[in-house]
Amino acid sequence: MKILVTGGAGYIGSHVVEQLIDKGYEVVVFDNLSAGHRSAVHRDATLVIGDLLHKPDLDALFSAHTFDGIMHFASHILVGESMQNPHKYFHDNMVAIFNTLEYATLHGVKRFILSSTAALFGDPERVPITEDEKLSPGSVYGETKYMAERTLRWMDEIYGLKYCALRYFNACGAHPNAHIGEDHDPESHLIPITLQVALGQRAALSIYGTDYPTPDGTCIRDYIHVLDLAEAHILALEALADGRSRVYNLGNGTGFSVREVVEVARQVTGHAIPVIEAPRRPGDLPSLVADSSRIREELGWQPEFTNLYAIMETAWNWHKTHPHGFSDKT
Question: Which of 59, 88, 118, 218 has a CA that sits 20 to 30 A from residue 99's CA?
Fold first, then answer.
């Protein structure tokens, strides 16, 4: 099978590409390299540099290749930025998926995997969060993913395009070989920021809010290793052969507080990692933890990295061997 991976030079996409190739798939990566990295793309994948917002690029792509499935990662992902610049997110994120789906349906693609998000659950009534929880995005970024999921529903009804929307919680970690990992600019995720303190690239870590209704007063999040995410994508792609679309929440089902993450980082790195207590940030919820029992039961998905220490070790190995990220900054 030949799979198109949009945004396949990015953090999660590049790890999924590696897993696809390891399992014998033929992979074409389509990326404009605005946030991704050429050297993150597996040498056996075909890299096509282009922009989903530019239809001539898609004309050329679909003229040159016939795809059995598409995995769509290309997206702006910063929640805070989406609230400061909503036009960028509504335009770019939505035009990108509209164009991708237009060409997918025109060319008879029958399987589509969407990189979705836990940002759909802006005010959950129950934690852990199931797929049946009401969808109430708390940001423009989350709203664009909600709109993408709704669009896919109509593509299924009208064209028979079967899809799976995978709603990630907190993706983290790196490939155990430490040749690819997380490299965002700017960095907004807790674990890499914490490790940047250990590397001496930041003086301290700011903890935003220490008075939440949690055991230690800091926010609790569900951290899922990027390779476990990758495995879920491939299981979902294969499951679509049964002709049924679906959605899944992806997490370990165990939450860790900010203070717990910092303490594990201290153990892994041997660095003191000083912290600064700061006021809460608007929109941060006390606890976001996934109930992933549906994908476990239906597809047999079993996360390999369930221990935060092991997850942190893979991230640390990447960051200490690549302190400035990938060498081919674009």
Answer: 118
